[in-house]
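Tc1-like transposase DDE domain-containing protein, Phytophthora nicotianae P1976. Tokens?
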Amino acid sequence: MEVNAAFVDDVYGAVKATDVYRDFFVGKTIVIILDNAPAHSQAEDLIKNREDLEMLRLGPYSPMCNPIEGMLGSRLFLVFNADQMFDLPYGEKTERRMRLLENAADHCIGCMDLRLVNRMARHSAHAVAAAVRNESMQYGL
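Tokens:
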């Protein structure tokens, strides 16, 4: 849990160190979006001393309403690298899974730009609105 808190703290520090933040967003709240993993709620408990940091939790899992699902092509990366998860010695699966997820993020981070982020945010907003209206949705469209 301290690792997650340290990661959030590192992200917070990295955001504040950017020229964009210093030029346009000083004094504004930094928002970090977390999913519902139990480790994230514990990270929230550890990070309380930041007046300009807000951590938002996504609701119950819905891939259509989760912009992270669309931002990272990590699923495809994980599919092609799934063999790394089989036949592991006892106790190594968690560490190997973490390395695999980190590699997926490293592999996919280069394709993220403002246009893609805005597109996924818009897509997620439409999905959330449809969910609020109890409309049917098709995953992946």
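The mean pLDDT is 74.
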